[in-house]
Model the fold of this input.
Amino acid sequence: MTPNPTDRRESFMTDAKKLFIKTYGCQMNVYDSERMAEALGASGYTVTDTPDQADMILLNTCHIREKAAEKVYSELGRLKPLKSANPDLKIGVAGCVAQAEGEEIMRRAPLVDLVVGPQTYHRLPAMERAVRAGERAVDTEFPEEDKFEHLPKGPRARRAPAAFLTVQEGCDKFCAFCVVPYTRGAEVSRPVDRVLREARDLVERGVCEITLLGQNVNAYHGAGDGGAWSLARLIREMARIDGLERIRFTTSHPNDMDDDLIAAHGDEPKLMPYLHLPVQSGSDRILKAMNRKHSAAQYLRVIERLRAARPDLLLSGDFIVGFPGETEQDFEDTMALVREVRYGQAYSFKYSARPGTPAAERADVPDDVASDRLRRLQALLTEQQRDLQAEMVGREVSVLFEKPGRLPGQMVGKSDYLHAVHVADPRAQVGQIARVRIVESAANSLRGEIAA
Ligand code: SAH
Ligand code: SF4
Ligand code: F3S
Done:
């Protein structure tokens, strides 16, 4: 019997070069890492999860806070022995640190062969050829062409049931503390038909939950039939895709929460009742200094309208403490806002001065003061998370099972409210959505039983 084309492809795949990608930072980087793997797939690479087997290692990096950026250099230090053991190993730095510090990385870390920014990774195949030929390659342009149009289509393989889909790149908001507008460039929305095509493709490959991504995803305004489409219109159209059961989006800016998007939380059943809506501070003085362009009252009003549309909406937020000029009263205003909202989940950070941003020029709050505020804020947020989780006990939620849990026979999934839920039941299968009754709340997850 002659081997069929699939067999031949498989024997070719066993000789494939191995690619290891380590991803830092936000969900947009997670999405980009998948697309980089696809781009290099066309050059004969398959992904491995062990760096010591790799022919190429890519670090997809984050520049948002000083600690995030420092991780790159310490990780590069750890890779040195691998490179000495295997001189053919190629090492690349991608993502937001690559964009911000490309030339410096090349100077400081001679073991790096390749630096590629978030908007040029569709050029990876050509860069890979260059580094294989012994060159060092840097590409941190903001090119005219759209990287998404130049990326190869991924393999048709089935994939995990929950997927990210980037619908918007960059950011035009220029909050005074933030590097994203510099590392990711101007805000651009992908055209509607491309997004829908990618969504359908994901669903055909077994995906039933899609999270739409952008740094200001609710400002989405993609070109489509009859002019620009809002995010709400895109979500309503996606909801018509058979087999797509759950839609989420992140991250949103309070100022771009339009009427239709608020209404969709009430009338679009596939839109999940969880919303990440960062506010950063509860003090109007600090919000102004941060260039957030809204007041605490305006933020609270948006939340009130969202909750009127969807009373059980679970909210999450981001907070920065110790922003330059923050007084004890400003911080108390943040605590008061948190008490008023009650967050189901939250991320809070000590302000980190980022080179090139306007706030970096201003005098810092002393570190011990900022640390103390962070501790107090996190105590309050943890208490809220615990209380809201405890309120889930006895309730029935829908859970999408994503992977086996750590204990034998256990499955882990996500509730509609994005809680991690553990279930020990042989009926629970990856990719399945089941009604689950919550029986227990732990620190960062819930335990449930499949409802009869
Ligand atoms: N686009 C999103 C957030 C992107 S960055 C938004 O507008 O909210 C994710 C979070 O990191 C931010 O919400 C903020 O809380 C935090 N962050 C950003 N820059 C920071 C800095 N310089 N120091 C500390 N935290 C920062
Ligand atoms: Fe950064 Fe502000 Fe843009 Fe969010 S909206 S990415 S915080 S500049
Ligand atoms: Fe970090 Fe870049 Fe995301 S700086 S948070 S990886 S957009």
Remarks:
- The pocket of S-adenosyl-L-homocysteine (ligand 1) is lined by residues 64-65, 177-178, 180, 215-216, 251, 253, 278, 280, 318, 320, 349, 351-352, 354 (CB under 6 Å).
- The mean pLDDT is 94.
